Amino acid sequence: MGIKELLGLGNKFVSYDIGSSAIKIVELESRVGTKIELSKFDIFNIPRDMINVNFNDSLVVDKNSFKDLLYDHTIKNKIKNQKCGIMLSDGNAIINWLNIKLNPGENLNASISEKLGALFPSDIANWDFHWQVLEEKKDNFTIISEAILKDNVMEIGEIFHEISMWPHFLDVSCFNSMNMFHNFLVSSDNNKKNISLIYLGNDSTTVMIFNNGMLKSFRLIPFGGKDFTSAICDGLGMTYEDAENFKHNERFFLREYSDEQNKLENYNVVKNVFGEIVKGIYNSFDSYLAKFREFKIHKIILYGGTANFRNINVLLQKHLNIPVTLGSELVTVKHNGNELSSDEKNLLIPVIGGLIRD
């Protein structure tokens, strides 16, 4: 998918993932099957609240500071005048799942526009939207649609042009991360199995379910890494910055599940947030299984920055009773011949997926 397809310049392709807490930049050196070599990559934090999420009129709060920060890291990595892809947090888009039955003489595009017009929170003219047919049976179509405010599209495009970069697409992170797991999803071992990709981001958690490599279900849960940090702030009386450091350096989840888990003071501070995420995932699975008359979710692939919250996968597997594998275990990504760390790969999966999209 993708919102804007623009003509650009340059020889190499660079991908940017603009999150609310960090920006990731990667440039592809080579790709052989599932083995990826990066010529450049960078991960850097941005000030809290520099980026708005959830359909704000202005995506970037401080345009000049954001542009300067983006420019500094682009130049530091010796990137200039190149084609690029841009990814935003999943919460910056409206994702709609549509089931449309066409009557004789009806036009699919017109039917989709009419349905979306009733779903958007403002006039459809304010939105750039793109849709894709996932499944077609006679005159019944299953459609997934993605929409981003036109003002946000233009704002990001202008900023990148001002630093001499040329956008070829603007998209959300989750749809690009699928590219990294395509071979796994369509492998003979997973034939007819229900596989869930769960993207644990800073602002939200995205749950996607695939069967035979086809996307069958999508849901956004409004809880993510920032909510864990806020819970630590409130529970332990820390500043947001100190809570971020505490979250990364202290123990919240045990390496192996035991009754001691519920006795951890740190865990009890974030327990409610973790519970909301588990509940959202469970409801997503329950809805899918009932709709398609399936019996089970066979495996969860967990990735994103919050998947690096140490051992969160262990407790998630215990609560859902479904095998959980970190996305970093399924991909091979190297830079200068050296394999990236698990944490780096989990963070970079969406932005690398943007590099290898067709």
Strand and helix layout:
Blueprint: E1 13-18, E2 22-32, E3 35-45, H1 63-76, E4 83-88, E5 94-101, H2 108-119, E6 127-137, E7 140-149, H3 150-162, E8 166-172, H4 173-177, H5 182-185, E9 194-200, E10 205-211, E11 214-221, H6 225-236, H7 240-249, H8 265-292, E12 299-303, H9 312-320, E13 324-326, E14 332-335, E15 338-339, H10 342-355
Parallel strand pairs: 1-4, 3-14, 4-8, 9-12, 12-13
Antiparallel strand pairs: 1-2, 2-3, 5-7, 6-7, 9-10, 10-11, 14-15
Provide an overview of this structure:
By secondary structure, the chain is α/β, with parallel strands linked by helices. It folds into three domains: 13-92 and 147-180 and 350-355, Nucleotidyltransferase, domain 5; 94-146; 182-332, 2-Layer Sandwich (Nucleotidyltransferase, domain 5). Helices cover 34% and strands 30% of the residues. It has helices at 63-76, 108-119, 150-162, 173-177, 182-185, 225-236, 240-249, 265-292, 312-320, 342-355, and strands spanning 13-18, 22-32, 35-45, 83-88, 94-101, 127-137, 140-149, 166-172, 194-200, 205-211, 214-221, 299-303, 324-326, 332-335, 338-339. The strands form three sheets. The protein has a seven-stranded mixed sheet, with helices on both faces. Strands 11-10-9-12-13 form a five-stranded mixed sheet. The relative contact order is 0.16. Mean pLDDT is 92; it is low at 1-10.
